[in-house]
Write a structure and sequence with these properties.
By secondary structure, the protein is α/β, with parallel strands linked by helices. It has 11 helices and 7 strands. It has helices at about 5-40, 55-60, 65-95, 110-120, 125-135, 140-145, 145-160, 180-190, 200-205, 220-235, 250-260, and strands at about 50, 50-55, 95-100, 120-125, 165-170, 190-195, 240-245. Bound molecules: shikimate-3-phosphate.
Length: about 270
Amino acid sequence: MRDLKQIREEVAACDAQLARLLARRMDCLKEALLYKKGHGLPILEPATENGKKTGAEKERGPADPARDVYGEELEQIFACISQMGKKVQGKALLDHNIALIGFMGVGKSTVSHCLRDLLAMEEAETDAMVVEAEGMAITDIFAKYGEPYFRRCESDAIIRLQNRRQVIISCGGGAVTRQENVECLKKSSRIVLLTATPETILERVKNSRERPILNGHMDLPYITGLMEKRREAYEAAADITVSTDDKPVVEICEEIIQKATAGDFS
Ligand code: S3P
């Protein structure tokens, strides 16, 4: 039987080998990213080969005897490896934040969650930050203190995000109507304006009771009028504009990444 020192040495050797292999794997993922960019291929498309899954599941191989013994543990390890792979790609793609702006119901939260999942990025929602800081719902803040107070809280949330990087920031629909918020966001973010028609917006928000701005005004003329009023502010703030009408969320995310990283790779 080997002594403890020998066993420990082999464990250390395994770790060193694993670290080298994992670094190589991450280098490959970055190289794949460059290849996709260079060949005009979709960036976020999940890796597929002959219609089958690649990634951890395939790399491990169906006939791998280690799976019989350590199946559950390997499953978890590869899930983590896959997550870290996404993170490496996310970092290679973006060294700034992505700030999503646009009218209520354009899909900022949905797009934000999808980008977060695809690139293992951090996510921040200004509304959620305000709710947390104030300990009450947005509707209650509006009812108790009024809209100007809410806007100050929203600006505070945006200031708190100004030194962060590689975060998906989902802004409340009225955030960029304040110029100070736009200037603060611009310091660290590509600002992405999501758009949709008033009809699409109404369809998406009509059952919501959480948007005080629309309470008692859940109709097309009001939404169209407010969108028009805000249009200049949205367009002036935006670095990139992406329409969300009739598009699957992954397609919207792909368009964002393509536009936000255009020119970043050679
Ligand atoms: C608002 C939009 C809301 C929220 C608040 C005010 C607005 O966020 O910040 O109710 O003025 O457009 P969503 O755009 O996420 O709904």
